[in-house]
């Protein structure tokens, strides 16, 4: 995530923990679950569906 606003088709705007930001799918990385310390929160199903759709388009089409 970032707080820098860019209107790219691979970025999704959202508010998380009271802060406006963007999920940056054009810089997606893999992280081993062992490195994750704790969950910070959840995203709603609308954002989750947008994420899945964009990732699918990036990798399949």
Count of spatially separate domains: 1
Quickly count the helices. Answer: 1
Report the uncertain regions: none
Ends apart, CA distance between termini: 24 Å
Strand order of the largest sheet: 1-2
List the secondary-structure elements in sequence, H or E.
Answer: EEH
**Global shape:** globular
Number of strands: 2
Mean pLDDT: 91
The rounded Rg comes to: 12 Å
- Strand residue percentage: 15-25%
Give the assembly state of these chains: single chain
Helix content: 25-40%
InterPro entries: PemK-like, Plasmid_toxin/cell-grow_inhib
Protein name: PemK-like protein
GO molecular function: DNA binding
Question: Summary?
Answer:
With 61 residues, the chain is of the alpha+beta class. It contains one helix and two strands, in the order E-E-H.
Model description:
The chain is α+β, with helices and mostly antiparallel strands and 61 residues long. It has one domain (1-28, 40-61). It is 26% helix and 20% strand. The protein starts with 10 loop residues before the first strand and ends with a helix. The mean pLDDT is 91.
